[in-house]
Design brief:
Length: about 425
């Protein structure tokens, strides 16, 4: 607590207590760590957790230029599912979904994980064919996926408009019952609390600006608070990754786009599942508190401003009312934007770099919240062993040279 000096105005907030340590501590950075993780979003924090839990590594710093979990982790619409088309994607997202199913217990913190199922609507014959193909691919990968007809869509979500008399009538949907939502802030706080208890240093308000190198090794990071030595450096900085790797001459093919979301005023529980539609382009779920949570696609331009353009919201609202006429009189409460890191094949980049102890995790685009525990686990393995975990092998940076892309563009309706 900072005392007010007589005659001088108090700094706003100075009368408040220091950050409560029962959540996590705000330590003074040490000169060296075994592992420095750049980025204190969900992925950085989850990586620290699994380094501690599975590999016994605790001399770790997570360096965050803002506040913990204040980037995309705080801005996403929290959809969790694993019904992706390609084997490599299905495997990593299903691994993650299984970890979600035990995460509350693992972290000993309520994260409000609610498995309420996701419907990906089909509105055209082409949608129907694509949906059947994805359901069969999912089943082969052991994922709970089924094709449901229009009547079953109505049973699962009674307020959806199944009339055949609309612009895009619903012809059926894919359904993944184990999909769901969780409370994103709680997930971030839960990981932060857990790793802080284990001795991991969470260093906020500190920006990594470059690297210290010796030959083909990175030996530390440069920050706006001085240099910090590192045995290994793991990048979990989402769209800012390429600005960091550029300083080492490593080109990472990600583009950062605005992605917006919005919530309505609080309503009674009217929407029991998650509904996504690519054709009209919107997805909707209802948060525990009662807001309808909606999102759509990215703004077409690139940039790091956390805001998008109005026409996206307007289209999204029109699409929502088309699917759910009952929402026509609901009020929009709040809109916001994030910056998502999009790769040419809409799949993440996780793994090694030309520097033997520098590791990459980025490019999760519009869909990385659901991957949080899964990628934390496999990224930690990759860092601890120095070689890519089986599940991340297909997602290496080298695929943009070899051409082995994992093209998930549009493969699972709206890509969240
Ligand atoms: C509107 C919106 C809706 C979304 N909806 C969904 C969804 O429903 N389901 C889903 O699965 N995903 C969704 N996503 C995507 C998801 O939010 C991201 O993929 C995921 O949060 C990425 O996690 P992260 O930890 O990599 O990134 P972030 O949470 O963004 O963390 C990266 C951190 O790195 C920090 N950083 C950057 N540069 C530096 C530096 N130089 N030094 C130190 N720190 C640095 C940043 O401040 C940031 O905190 C959505 C995203 C948005 C914006």
């Amino acid at each position: 607590m900072v005392a007010k000096t007589a005659g001088q105005p108090a700094t706003p907030g100075s009368e408040l207590p220091e950050h409560p340590d029962f959540l996590w501590e705000n330590p003074i950075p040490k000169r060296n760590y075994d592992v420095v993780i750049v980025g204190g979003g969900g992925h950085g924090l989850a990586t620290a957790h699994y380094l501690v839990k599975n590999h016994g590594i605790t001399n770790i710093a997570v360096i965050e230029r803002g506040w913990l979990a204040g980037g995309n982790m705080a801005r996403n619409t929290t959809l969790i599912r694993s019904n992706y088309l390609w084997d490599a994607s299905a495997a990593i997202y299903e691994h993650s979904l299984k970890l979600w199913e035990g995460l509350e217990e693992d972290l000993d913190y309520p994260i409000l994980f609610s498995q309420r199922g996701v419907l990906n609507l089909a509105h055209t014959q082409q949608d129907v064919r694509d949906s059947h193909r994805r359901v069969e691919a999912n089943k082969l990968n052991g994922i709970d996926a089924e094709w449901v007809d229009t009547e079953r869509v109505r049973e699962l979500c009674p307020i959806v408009n199944i009339s055949s008399d609309i612009r895009y009538p619903i012809l059926g949907a894919t359904y993944q019952p184990r999909a769901g939502i969780a409370k994103h802030d709680y997930v971030g706080w839960a990981f932060a609390r857990r790793v802080s208890q284990a001795g991991v240093h969470l260093i906020q308000d500190t920006e990594v600006t470059g690297f210290l190198t010796e030959g083909d090794r990175v030996v530390g990071v440069r920050t706006n608070r001085g240099d910090i030595g590192a045995g290994s450096v793991a990048l979990a900085a989402a769209g800012h990754t390429s600005t960091l790797t550029d300083t080492l001459g490593i080109r990472v093919p990600i583009q950062s786009h605005p992605l917006q979301a919005l919530v309505s005023e609080l309503l009674e529980p009217v929407h029991p599942t998650i509904v996504m539609s690519n054709a009209v382009h919107v997805y909707v779920s209802q948060a525990h508190k009662g807001e309808l949570v909606m999102g759509a696609g990215v703004d077409a331009y690139t940039g790091y401003g956390q805001r998008g353009s109005f026409h996206i919201i307007e289209r999204q609202m029109a699409a929502a009312v088309e699917l759910f006429p009952v929402f026509a009189r609901a009020h929009l409460l709040r809109t916001w934007g994030g910056v998502v890191d999009v790769t040419p094949d809409a799949s993440p980049i996780v793994g090694l770099t030309p520097y033997e102890n520098l590791f990459l995790n980025c490019g999760w685009g519009t869909g990385g919240f659901k991957a949080t525990p899964g990628v934390g686990d496999v990224f930690a393995h990759t860092i601890a062993t120095g070689s890519p975990h089986e599940l991340v092998k297909p997602f290496g940076l080298d695929r943009f040279v070899t051409g082995h892309l994992v093209d998930e563009h549009g493969a699972a309706a709206v890509a969240h």
